[in-house]
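Re: the 161-residue chain
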Amino acid sequence: MNITFNRDSVTVMLANLAGNTIIRVTTETTPKLKGGKKNLMQGEITKITVSSVQIFTNQNTNGYNNKRLKANADFKLSPRAWGERVAGTPFVTHKGKDYLEVIFNKVIETEYFRNGKSIAKDAIEGLPKSKPASDTDGVIIRTYALESIRSLRAFGNEYTT
C-alpha cells in the first residue's frame, strides 16, 4: 500500500497494536559527510537502512522503561532529553516534527546511493565511521523522523511511500 507517513497514517497502520510488536522499518537519510562544502559528495549520498525494531503503544505503562527495568532493577527513569512524548503512542514531537520511537533490534540491510546510483560504502569520501549503538541496560532506543520513513512492515502488511 502506498501512503504518506505522518502521525495519522502510522496510527491507522498500528491500530491493532495493544502493547508491543516487532516491525520492520526502512528509512532514507542523507548522511552528513566530513569536509563540509569542500566535499564534492556532500548532499549527493543517500543511505537506505532496513531495521528490525520493537514498537510499543504504552497505553497503561511505559513499555520502553519496563524493558529496561527487567534488564536492570536499579534503572531510574530520566526525563526525555528532547521532544515531547505523545501519551499512549510511540510518537515524539519536537519543533513541529513527528518522530517514531522504537527499541532497536538490528540492522537488516544498508545501501548507499550517489545521485540515485548504487555506491560502495568505502567509496564515499568523508563518511563518518559508524558509532556503536547507545545502549542502556541492553535497550537501544531509536527515534526516526516520520519524513525519513520509506516503508513499514507490520502485522503482515507492508506500507510504502
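Residues 17 and 131 are 31 Å apart (CA to CA).
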